[in-house]
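Intended use. Records such as the Heat shock protein family A (Hsp70) member 12A.2 entry shown here are meant for training and evaluating sequence-to-structure methods. They are not intended to support clinical decisions.
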Amino acid sequence: MACAESVVSIAVDFGTAYSGYCFKFRKSKQIRMPKWGLEIGYDTLKTPTCILFDENKQFLNFGYDAIETYNRHKSKEEAKRLYLFDNFKMEALMISAKNGKKMRAIKVFSESLKFMKDHALDKIREHTAGMEYSACEATWVLTVPAIWSPAAKQFMREAAVQAGLIRDFDHERLIVALEPEAASVWCKHYCAPDQNMNMTFSCFYLGGTIDITVHEVMEGGRLKELHKVSGNNMGGQTVDKNFREFLRKTLTEDVFDEFEEKYPTELYRLMCDFSVCKRSGSNGMGSQWCSMGQWINTTELNFRFYRTESKTVQYVDEEGVEEFGLIRVELPTAKKSREQSVRLKIKFGFTEMMATITDRKGNKTDAKLDFMTESLVL
């Protein structure tokens, strides 16, 4: 049986550390995003990516509720029988819970998505005077890290089918979107809709990964990828891990382990408060979420040069690496050209470094070289 036309779009951000969703009705411009944890003293736009199963592997709770339920039984024998998964990643077919036992990854992910689906449909009913909507009346958007493989993306689509977001024959109702590309679209259409943007640079800093992408804004608002999306698995959880190690060394291992064993709820709240401070870039008393963007009418590109005596260096911020100059490449303004395409040719080995720029029409000009930096050795 064919589903009705989509009347609402629901976007699910299923992250390693935190997850959430927002929804928008087709005929409305307003995007709604629920708050989480209000009943236990929190007020966040996402909830921890934690899911709890009973000893028979039946779903119990997700998010803050899963952690609160588990911590209430932490000192009891019952806790050893519960399956708690937190900050889980799709790295294998089986995932280990807190008690060391394993469960199929597809079940953990699909039950998590099912919770998000049910929560979203319940929230939509609250905003429509009790009107019932089914999952097949929605278009679903599921964001995934850019560094995920095609197999990982297929896994999430199959998990969405098992969770009931879509039917097996109705795949067009599920959009699997790369997180940095979704952020780039948001910057273009929502952060500054009236800005004359020529380029968007998105650095998506997540719990598990960091994804970076650069797009050129074309005529009509379309986006053209200037560089392949890249990233790594050094997300916010790396900071959390180092903070825990800092506490362990400061308090000594014995004290920290005793605190973790006897007061798991307090430790969890401490880590949540730290996460809030980390995201806000302040002492945690201000906004819990911050955004940063820059819109550039690009007229030049800067190529920076670094030097080192090391033969194994990989990054410019490593010890022994110093910047010693840059080359400025002037570009035509957006009014003169939408392409802004040039070729840079650099000649080494002469008394001076030489650089020449050639545009698409074959016109050549010398680049501006600036090596009068403080690190320059005369």
